[in-house]
Design brief:
Elements: H1 5-13, E1 21-25, H2 30-39, E2 43-49, H3 51-57, E3 67-71, H4 81-86, E4 89-91, H5 95-101, H6 103-108, H7 120-123, H8 126-135, E5 143-144, E6 154-158, E7 168-170, H9 173-179, E8 186-190, E9 195-204, E10 212-214, E11 223-239, H10 240-243, H11 249-254, E12 261-268, H12 276-290, E13 302-310, E14 316-322, H13 339-342, H14 348-361
Parallel strand pairs: 1-2, 1-4, 2-3
Antiparallel strand pairs: 5-8, 6-7, 6-8, 9-11, 9-13, 10-11, 11-12, 13-14
This protein binds adenosine-5'-triphosphate.
Length: 370
């Protein structure tokens, strides 16, 4: 179902635009988002389950929300929509919000939300996402459709797995058969050997300056908005990052150990400068393509992340896109080697708040919300 433009306009017509509150579930990248909102002069609202979370945020006065909405269960948020709208709240979504509410509830949450919620339909289907990225000009790991054809390391990804849980690596068909759970949907992907870089971009359709994304297809010849590179990280993943210390994959299998890809933290990264133009080319193509996903598509809005592996041939392989702020932007609360060039201390969280502030001034706030 989702939220129509008319519904959104109706809600916003009743909003006091000089009195906006930035609301966020107190998890994931919320410290950064709340801090950034405060820097840009917004009131802030934290949403949480359980008093421990609230107490914990008091340890960070620079981000501690002005007000809290305490719930017994995150799904109660759906019933609080009117309460939130009365307070002129704009919700900033992140991965935990989508996970806690579930994708359908998130799409139908009756509160103005930063970004384009409809993009989730392309993001959450592996096949639709793959087509989007390919049409956007990204290079992707190849896919093996017949397990008998596995002839080199592959990674087997289950449909519903989050944060790489349950993925496994197989070297050949026997390996695959031994480990696979055939009751679940999965995709077999070439295992790309290289360095994993997560590129955090920001696309502002209301900004007319800077690097302008050129439209394609039905938007050919149009400038769609400003694309910025905010920062970059690599993830610490347990236990695959430390696995090698115990010996070869064969030794480890003998000990009945399998590598796992559970994210435990993030580290800042900068890319070889000569790779940046290609990174921009892929990000620009991905944004341009997001406007072509269906008739009348609103396209990407705000923060997104291309999750890549760079091989020793200096080639990017994009294995996933996240169409909202990612937790990998958290090392950059005080800015990054990229965002500092444009303006010091500009985190992605602050950039979101800045875009909201500027769009309100220009009377274009609806263009950033869904
Ligand atoms: P999230 O939603 O948190 O990003 P996910 O469950 O969608 O995670 P992926 O991001 O697809 O999982 O992959 C998890 C991890 O598996 C990656 O961070 C990376 O380390 C590894 N990985 C994924 N695809 C490949 C690949 N094709 N080759 C090598 N490693 C890969």
């Amino acid at each position: 179902m989702g939220i129509s433009r008319e519904q959104l306009s109706g809600w916003l017509a009743a909003y006091d635009k000089d009195n906006i509150t930035i609301g966020v579930i107190a998890s994931h990248s919320a410290l950064q988002i709340l801090h950034g909102a405060r820097q840009e002069g917004f009131k802030t609202l934290g949403i949480a389950v359980g008093d421990n979370r609230r107490r914990f945020y008091s340890a960070f006065p620079g981000a501690d929300p002005d007000e809290w909405l305490m719930l017994d269960d995150y799904r109660e948020l759906l019933e609080q929509a009117e309460w939130l709208r009365k307070r002129n709240v704009i919700i900033i979504p992140h991965g935990s919000l989508v996970e806690y509410l579930g994708p359908e509830n998130f799409r139908n949450l009756q509160v103005p939300t930063f970004g384009n919620r409809e993009i989730l339909r392309w993001e959450s289907s592996r096949e639709a996402q793959r087509q989007w990225l390919l049409n956007g000009g990204c290079t992707l790991p190849s896919v093996v459709t017949d397990p008998h054809q596995i002839d080199g390391p592959v990674i087997v990804k289950y449909a519903g797995a989050k944060g790489g849980r349950g993925y496994f690596i197989a070297r050949d068909y026997r390996d695959f058969r031994r480990n696979v759970n055939l009751d679940e949907d999965f995709m077999i992907q070439e295992y790309v050997l290289g360095c994993r870089y997560y590129l955090h971009f920001f696309f502002d359709p209301t900004a007319e300056d800077g690097f302008q994304v050129q439209g394609k297809g039905s938007h050919a010849g149009k400038r769609l908005g400003r694309l910025e590179l905010m920062s970059m990280d690599r993830r610490d993943e347990s236990n695959v990052d430390e696995f090698y210390k115990l010996g070869s994959l064969r030794d480890l299998r003998e000990m009945t150990l399998e590598p796992t890809f559970v994210v435990t933290g993030n580290q800042p990264v900068v890319l070889r400068e000569s790779l940046l133009p290609r990174a921009f080319e892929m990000a620009e193509g991905t944004v341009a393509e997001s406007f072509e996903l269906e008739e009348g598509a609103r396209g990407m809005i705000g923060a997104f992340c291309l999750e890549t592996i760079v091989t020793d041939k200096l080639e990017f392989k994009v294995f996933e896109i996240s169409a909202r702020i990612v937790a990998g932007s958290n090392p950059f609360v005080g800015g990054s080697s990229y965002s500092d060039i444009n303006e010091p201390n500009m985190s992605t969280g602050r950039r979101i708040a800045r875009s909201i502030g500027k769009a309100i001034e220009k009377g274009k706030i609806e263009d950033l919300l869904s």
